[in-house]
Amino acid sequence: MSVKKMIAEAERIASLLAEAPAETPDVMAPPVVLNDPLVAAALPIWGDYAPELRRTHRLRPLHRLSFAMFCVYMGEWIAASDDIRRNGTFQLVSTVAGGAMERTRPIVAFREIAYRNVMDLSKEFGLTPREEYALFRDQADAVGKNPGLFGNTPNRALSDDQANGGEAAPSGSVIGSLSALDSAPPSSVN
Questions:
Q1: What are the beta bridge partners of residue 92?
Q2: CA atoms within 13 A on the CB side of 140
Q3: pTM, 2 dp
Q4: Phi, psi (5° rounding) for residue 93?
Q5: H helices of the chain, where?
Q6: Tens of pLDDT, residues 91-147
Q7: What is the 3-state secondary structure (H, E, C) of 92-109?
């Protein structure tokens, strides 16, 4: 596909986004742009990932278009990988001298761009192991400091200090944090 065709397709898809209705009955339904046959591979990706992302509070209505971009780039990466599998990485091109030489096919660079975009957006949604851990860690910290933030109800038992009339260490404080690891001393054998 030539650069001009790629730009024309990008403009056509951008117009689909502009024409998409502002609200749909299901706020978590895939955006209209994913119904376009040219990005057909993106819709199953949405179906695979969106339910889990929504369940873990990583996909909100405001994030639908960003996640749709992830799905489109993932679909492009899959399509480019399939093309490379079927047609190879290299192609013969004519030289000025009349001979032929091997060159890397343009789809290889296209796949690399799609890969980078997928990885960048994966980080935004916590789809890499490192980012998922960091996101859950940050969510747990936020819940600890803001009970009820993600719709959960605070249900904490009193610490030993609180039960004995003292104050607990502040949430997120290093001071007193190791007391949660305390265990009863071993019983003495007489």
A1: 102
A2: 7
A3: 0.65
A4: -125, 150
A5: 3-19, 42-55, 64-87, 106-124, 129-145, 160-163
A6: 999 999 999 999 999 999 999 999 999 999 999 999 999 999 998 898 888 888 887
A7: EEECCCCCEEEEECHHHH
